[in-house]
Write a structure and sequence with these properties.
By secondary structure, the chain is α+β, with helices and mostly antiparallel strands. Helix content is about 40%, strand content about 15%.
């Protein structure tokens, strides 16, 4: 690596002496040339204009006293790959050369602009993400935490440069843990990865043979099993398979069936891609509050779980069912704030379901969907004498409502964070789905396995006896709106690589194929895995 230290620039009066063609030029003219270069550069990069105009085009990188700031920037750019960033976006060698070769005031001005441009690009990427994900996956609705360029430049000037550079990436523990796992996986790959893959449809306790040995070796290299020379699928191997299954969201039965073997055979390189993409996803949530709310709800779609997190500690967890795999039913990614819950809710059938599913049923049989009320203008109307066949999806004038009750599609309670996607968390009478390993069956909303316990937990800060309070309202059988005294942030995310509170790296299947699309965009942006050369 080249030396990081950059020699201070010569004072302007020395430049006058040694530069041919400038000997007779006044210091004021040289300053004017320097500022002209900055002004031209600002014209090319609007994001810097307010900052430099407010400073009367005074530099922050190219004076002798700016050496520490220059070194902090170059060091950060040289280490950009430690964050899984596209290093081709910032060229520290070109920047170093621009600093060293600036032999006249105008070139110094150009070097000044180049440094600010690279700083802002790096700061944006490492702080709030490389991608604009909604442009790649339409079901991602993230308001990215982009900082104002002037604020970034002022922050750099007003603080220790090295400390400020270190403050740019997310400070959340999840990001730091994923970064460590990225480096660990790079070492694993450099050492040959996880070895050969395992064939065979099913391996279980008592089996022997070549594939059991292959499974043993792979589990050892993955870190799920201590070193062993056994050729038998013994209890130690069964426990190792269970540990693997738990860390990959699989049914932990200790049997290496087709689904488990498929995940075991995923390469270390592919897992590294998931981790790097996981770091990018963490940057999308890098708001000024690094904890995303002292109390917040986190729903991880491919993990099929929801969590309440209080001061970075998981205080409640439950299984969930998420949207089915067709794109029009997939659960979107976004953040909002839970404002209230509705106990004994009615279900107002979404328009897409009304005309897409129930209208054809009622056209075939007017008595179909009899558990739903027909509404027009918010008032119930009789189905008698209505010819449903005269309507199309476009002109159907009615709405459908299911009143509160034991069979209501929303169950006993729904948790509301009003949003344009009409997505919320709710109970469900379809309890059997929670026992499945894969739980993508809804129309997009999130069905909760332990809804009453979640309600008690959310009400606890405002009710002395939250369960009694909730159960009393539930027993009334009346639809009741209950405000939360303090709104709770809700983050619906899609993390296929994450680290548990216990520090264990977990992976999940890419159920909506979002990883694949996002990784293609990451590569197009210039992200490359740091792999050993062949």
């Amino acid at each position: 690596m080249k030396a990081l230290l950059i020699r201070p620039f010569l004072p302007i009066f020395f430049v006058i002496i040694i530069l041919s063609g400038f000997a007779a030029t006044s210091a004021d003219a040289l300053v004017t040339a320097f500022r002209q270069a900055i002004a031209e550069g600002v014209a090319e990069h609007d994001e810097m204009s307010d900052f430099y105009r407010a400073r009367a085009f005074e530099p922050i990188w190219t004076r002798s006293e700016d050496a520490d700031r220059r070194n902090a920037l170059i060091m950060a750019l040289e280490r950009a790959s430690n964050h899984g960033l596209p290093t081709n976006r910032y060229d520290p060698d070109a920047l170093r050369a621009a600093f060293m070769d600036a032999s006249n005031p105008y070139d110094r001005g150009r070097a000044e602009i180049l440094a600010s441009q690279m700083f802002l690009q790096y700061a944006r990427d490492v702080q709030s993400g490389i991608l604009d994900p909604g442009e790649i996956v339409t079901e991602i609705y993230r308001e990215l935490p982009r900082r104002n360029p002037t604020d970034l430049l002022n922050g750099l000037v007003e603080n220790d440069a090295h400390d400020f550079m270190r403050s740019l990436p997310p400070a959340h523990p999840e990001y730091l843990q994923l970064q460590r796992e990225m480096m660990r996986l790079e070492t694993v790959i450099a050492d040959g990865g996880w070895g050969g893959t395992v064939s065979g449809g099913r391996l279980e306790l008592g089996d022997r043979g070549r594939q059991v040995v292959a499974l043993r070796d792979r589990l050892i290299r993955m870190g799920h099993m201590n070193r062993s020379v056994t050729a038998e699928y013994d209890e130690a191997m069964q426990a190792a398979v269970q540990a693997f299954q738990l860390s990959h969201g699989l049914e932990a039965d200790g049997v290496a069936g087709p689904g488990t073997l498929e995940e075991i055979n995923v390469s270390a390189q592919q897992r590294l891609r998931q981790v790097v993409l996981g770091m990018e996803r963490q940057r999308w949530l890098n708001w000024e509050d690094p904890n995303r709310g002292s109390r917040h709800v986190l729903v991880n779609i491919p993990d099929y779980h929801a969590y309440v997190i209080d001061n970075e500690e998981v205080s409640f967890t439950t299984r969930v069912v998420v949207g089915a795999t067709p794109s029009d039913r997939a659960t979107p990614e976004f953040s909002d704030r839970m404002e209230h819950m509705v106990i004994n809710p009615s279900w107002y059938v979404p328009r897409s379901i009304t005309v897409g599913e129930y209208l054809p049923q009622m056209q075939a049989n007017p008595g179909a969907a009899g558990h739903l009320e027909l509404l027009q203008g918010g008032r119930a109307v009789s189905r008698a004498n209505i010819d449903f066949t005269q309507y199309t999806r476009a002109n159907f004038p009615f709405d459908l409502r299911q009143p509160p009750g034991t069979g209501n599609a929303l169950g006993r309670v729904k948790f509301m964070f009003p949003n344009r996607h009409n997505i919320y968390l709710h109970d469900t009478p379809s309890r059997s789905l929670f026992a499945r390993e894969t739980r993508a069956f809804s129309h997009g909303c999130v069905r909760v396995h332990r809804p009453l316990e979640l309600a008690y937990h959310l009400l606890a800060p405002q009710e002395a006896q939250p369960q009694n309070y909730f159960d009393r309202i539930l027993g009334s059988r009346q639809e009741t709106h209950v405000d939360l005294v303090s709104e709770v942030p809700v983050h619906i995310v899609y993390w296929t690589a994450f680290v548990t509170p216990e520090g264990d790296l977990n992976f999940r299947r890419d159920i909506y194929n979002r990883d694949a699309r996002l990784w293609n965009a990451m590569e197009a942006a210039g992200v490359e895995l740091r792999l050993p050369s062949s």
